[in-house]
C-alpha cells in the first residue's frame, strides 16, 4: 500500500514499512519544535494550518473529484465562527473551534447544494461565483449587520486553552504549536478514516465513473454534497486555528484567490494523498521565507514549478517521494 | 440623479458590455473546443492592457498597440497551448490547475516588472461629443463600434470560413471530425490562440477607459463567468448577448444605487439562472 488514495497495492516492497514511516513523521513533528526558536514554532504552526486548508481541497478534489475554488469561503467562515463564538458567545477555545467548524459546515449546506447541482465544468464556475458573491457582500459595508465586527479582527488578548483542570496560555508558543498539532492530527485521522471507509470508496467510484456509479445504485448527488460539506469542515477548522495562531483574521481570506492557494499547495504537494498537501505547503512557505527578498519573483518560479509538476509528476512531490521509496526497497 | 447621467451610465454599461462580450467569447470557445475553463483569461485581458500601455509609452502611438497586441495574443496563445496545455490535454482538471498556475505567473510577472501601482492610459481620440446635455467621450463610442465589428468578424470567421467550420466540427464531435480529416491539433492551437487574442484585444480597447494594473484580471474574470453561465456554456451568441445585457443592467442600477449593489444583483441573477435554467437563458435546447 502506498501513501496515496489511488493505488490499491504495490508489488514493490517499500524501504520502510508504511506504518513505521508515518510514525517517524509524527514523532518528528512532536519533537521538532523543542529545538526551534520561538518564532519558528509559530511558523511551523502556520504551516500546519495552511496545510490543513490545502488538505480540505485535496479531500474535495482528490477523493470527491470536485474542483472547488470556494474553500477559502469556508476558511473565512471558520474565522468568523471562531470570532463570533469567542467575542459574542464568550465560549472558551474548545467551544469556539467547534463553533467554527459548525459555522463552515452550515454555510456549506446551501452553497454546496447550489454547487453540486452543477455538473463538471459548471461546478468550478459556480464555486468561483459563490466566492465572489460572499466576498462582495461582506466587503460592501452596508451588510455589516450580517457578519458584524467578526470578520476582520485582531485578537487583543492572549488566548488560553483549558486542559483538564489547568489552563495553558498561548503566551508560550509551544502551547500554540501543540494545540495546532493536536487539532490537525485529529483532523488527518478523521480524513484517513473517511477515505478508507465505504463512504470514501463510494466517492472515489463516483469520481472515476459517474454513470456507472449511478447504475449500481449510488446516490451521486447526495454523496457529492456530503463530501463537499465534510471537506469544508477541514477548511473551517483551519480558519479557527489560523485565528488562534496568527491572532488575526481578515475579509480577504474569503477571496477566491485564497482558494486558488489551497489548490496550488495541494497539487504541488500531492493532491491524491493526505500528507501531500502538508508537504506542498511546507515547501512553499519555507522556500518563500528563505527567499523572502526575492519573494515576488519566487511566486513566478513557484508557478513554473507547478506547471512542471502538473506535466511530469501529477502526483505531486509526495508522489515522487513515494515512488522513490518504493524503488529503493526492491 | 439627472436623466443625462443615467443615459451616460447606460451607454458606459453598453460599451463595457461589448468589450466583456469579446473577452467572454474567447473564454467560451476555449471551453467549447478544449474543455478547459481558462481561469487565466482575465489575466490575458490584463496583459493586453499592460502591453498597450508599454507600447504607447514606448512609441507614443496608441494605434500601433491596437494593431500589435492582438498579434502578440495569437502568438502567446499558440505557444501556451503547445507547451503547457497540449501535454496534459487528457485531464481537464489538471488543465484548469495549469491555467491557474499561468494566472499566478502572469500576475506576479506583471507586478514584478510593470509595478504594483495602477497606471492610466490617455484617451487616444481625446474629444467629446455632446449627447443630450452631456459631453460624452468619442473614444468610448469608438470602442463600442470596434467591439461590434470584432464580434461580427468573429462570427463571420466561425461560420463562413473553412477553418471556422473546422472549429465548429471539432466542437460538435471531436472524434468524428478527426475521422473526416480535420487537423484537430491545429484547430486546438488556433482556438486557444484566438481566445487569448480576443482577450488581449479587449485589453487594448479597454485600456484607455480603465486603470492598468496587475489585478485587473481578477475583476474581469467573474464578469466573464457570469456572461458565460447566463448565456449558456458553449452558446456563443447567447454569451455575447448576456455580457451586454448584464453590463447594461449594472450600469443602470449604478445610477441609483452603489456599484457593489449592482454586482450583487448580477450575481443573484446568475444564481437564479443556475437553479432554474442551467443551460442558460438563451439556449435553444438543454445540453
What does this structure look like?
The complex is a heterodimer of chains A (330) and B (287). With 330 residues, chain A is mainly alpha-helical. Chain A has 14 helices and 4 strands. Chain A has a two-stranded antiparallel ribbon with strand order 1-4. A two-stranded antiparallel ribbon of chain A has the order 2-3. Chain A is globular. Chain B is mainly α. Chain B is built from 11 helices and 4 strands, in the order ααααβββααααβααα. Chain B has a two-stranded antiparallel ribbon with strand order 1-4. A two-stranded antiparallel sheet of chain B has the order 2-3. Chain B is globular, with a radius of gyration of 19 Å. Classes of the chains: A mainly alpha (330), B mainly alpha (287). At the A-B interface, α5, α11 and α13 of A face α4, α9 and α11 of B.
Record the SSE blueprint:
The complex is a heterodimer of chains A (330) and B (287).
Chain A: H1 18-31, H2 38-63, H3 71-88, H4 93-116, H5 120-139, H6 144-147, E1 153-154, E2 160-163, E3 166-169, H7 173-195, H8 198-208, H9 210-215, H10 220-246, E4 248-249, H11 256-269, H12 276-290, H13 295-312, H14 316-328
Antiparallel strand pairs in A: 1-4, 2-3
Helix pairs in contact in A: 2-7, 2-10, 2-11, 2-12, 3-4, 3-10, 4-5, 4-10, 7-10, 8-10, 11-12, 11-14, 12-13
Chain B: H1 3-34, H2 41-59, H3 62-85, H4 92-113, E1 119-120, E2 128-131, E3 134-137, H5 138-160, H6 162-172, H7 174-179, H8 184-206, E4 211-212, H9 216-231, H10 236-254, H11 259-276
Antiparallel strand pairs in B: 1-4, 2-3
Amino acid at each position: 500500500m502506498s501513501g496515496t488514495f489511488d493505488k490499491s497495492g504495490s508489488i514493490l516492497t517499500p524501504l520502510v514499512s508504511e506504518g513505521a514511516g508515518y510514525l517517524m513523521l509524527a514523532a518528528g513533528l512532536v519533537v521538532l519544535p523543542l529545538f526551534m526558536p520561538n518564532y519558528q514554532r509559530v511558523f511551523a504552526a502556520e504551516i500546519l494550518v495552511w496545510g490543513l486548508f490545502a488538505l480540505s481541497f485535496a479531500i474535495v478534489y482528490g477523493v470527491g473529484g470536485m474542483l472547488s475554488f470556494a474553500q477559502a469561503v469556508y476558511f473565512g467562515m471558520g474565522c468568523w465562527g471562531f470570532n463570533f463564538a469567542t467575542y459574542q458567545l464568550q465560549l472558551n477555545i474548545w467551544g469556539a473551534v467547534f463553533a467554527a467548524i459548525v459555522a463552515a459546515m452550515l454555510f456549506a449546506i446551501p452553497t454546496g447544494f447550489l454547487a453540486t447541482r452543477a455538473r463538471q465544468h459548471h461546478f468550478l464556475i459556480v464555486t468561483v461565483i459563490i466566492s465572489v458573491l460572499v466576498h462582495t457582500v461582506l466587503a460592501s459595508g452596508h451588510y455589516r449587520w450580517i457578519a458584524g465586527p467578526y470578520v476582520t479582527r485582531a485578537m487583543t488578548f492572549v488566548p488560553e486553552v483549558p486542559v483538564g483542570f489547568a489552563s495553558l496560555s498561548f503566551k508560550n508558543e509551544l502551547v500554540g504549536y501543540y494545540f495546532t498539532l493536536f487539532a490537525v492530527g485529529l483532523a488527518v485521522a478523521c480524513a484517513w478514516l473517511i477515505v478508507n471507509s465505504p463512504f470514501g470508496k463510494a466517492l472515489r467510484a463516483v469520481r472515476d465513473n459517474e454513470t456507472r456509479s449511478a447504475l449500481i445504485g449510488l446516490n451521486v448527488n447526495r454523496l457529492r454534497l456530503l463530501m463537499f460539506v465534510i471537506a469544508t469542515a477541514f477548511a473551517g477548522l483551519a480558519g479557527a486555528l489560523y485565528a488562534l495562531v496568527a491572532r488575526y483574521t481578515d475579509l480577504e481570506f474569503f477571496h477566491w484567490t485564497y482558494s486558488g492557494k489551497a489548490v496550488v499547495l495541494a497539487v504541488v504537494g500531492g493532491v491524491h494523498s493526505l500528507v501531500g498537501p502538508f508537504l506542498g505547503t511546507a515547501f512553499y512557505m519555507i522556500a518563500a521565507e528563505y527567499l523572502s527578498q526575492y519573494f515576488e519573483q519566487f511566486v513566478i518560479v513557484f508557478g513554473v514549478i507547478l506547471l512542471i509538476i502538473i506535466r511530469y509528476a501529477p502526483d505531486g512531490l509526495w508522489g515522487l517521494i513515494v515512488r522513490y521509496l518504493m524503488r529503493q526497497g526492491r | 440623479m439627472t436623466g443625462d447621467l443615467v443615459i451616460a451610465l447606460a451607454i458606459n454599461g453598453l460599451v463595457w458590455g461589448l468589450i466583456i462580450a469579446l473577452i467572454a467569447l474567447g473564454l467560451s470557445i476555449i471551453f467549447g473546443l478544449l474543455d478547459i475553463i481558462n481561469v487565466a483569461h482575465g489575466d490575458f485581458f490584463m496583459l493586453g492592457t499592460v502591453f498597450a500601455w508599454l507600447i504607447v509609452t514606448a512609441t507614443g502611438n496608441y494605434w500601433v498597440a491596437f494593431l500589435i497586441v492582438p498579434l502578440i495574443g495569437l502568438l502567446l496563445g499558440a505557444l501556451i497551448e503547445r507547451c503547457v496545455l497540449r501535454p496534459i490535454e487528457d485531464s481537464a482538471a489538471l488543465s484548469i490547475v495549469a491555467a491557474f498556475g499561468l494566472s499566478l505567473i502572469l500576475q506576479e510577472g506583471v507586478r514584478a516588472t510593470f509595478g504594483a501601482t495602477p497606471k492610466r492610459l490617455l484617451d487616444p481620440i481625446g474629444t467629446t461629443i455632446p449627447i443630450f446635455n452631456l459631453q460624452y467621450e468619442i473614444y468610448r463610442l469608438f470602442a463600442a463600434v470596434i467591439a461590434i465589428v470584432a464580434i461580427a468578424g468573429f462570427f463571420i470567421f466561425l461560420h463562413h470560413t473553412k477553418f471556422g467550420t473546422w472549429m465548429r466540427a471539432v466542437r460538435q464531435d471531436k472524434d468524428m471530425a478527426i475521422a473526416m480529416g480535420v487537423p484537430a491539433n491545429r484547430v486546438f492551437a488556433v482556438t486557444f490562440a484566438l481566445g487569448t487574442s480576443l482577450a488581449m484585444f479587449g485589453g487594448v480597447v479597454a485600456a484607455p477607459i480603465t486603470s492598468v494594473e496587475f489585478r485587473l484580471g481578477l475583476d474581469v474574470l467573474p464578469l466573464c463567468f457570469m456572461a458565460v453561465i447566463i448565456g449558456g456554456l458553449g452558446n456563443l451568441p447567447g454569451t455575447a448577448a448576456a455580457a451586454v445585457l448584464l453590463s447594461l443592467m449594472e450600469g443602470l442600477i449604478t445610477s441609483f444605487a452603489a456599484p457593489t449593489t449592482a454586482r450583487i444583483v448580477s450575481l443573484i441573477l446568475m444564481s437564479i439562472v443556475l437553479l432554474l435554467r442551467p443551460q442558460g437563458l438563451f439556449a435553444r435546447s438543454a445540453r
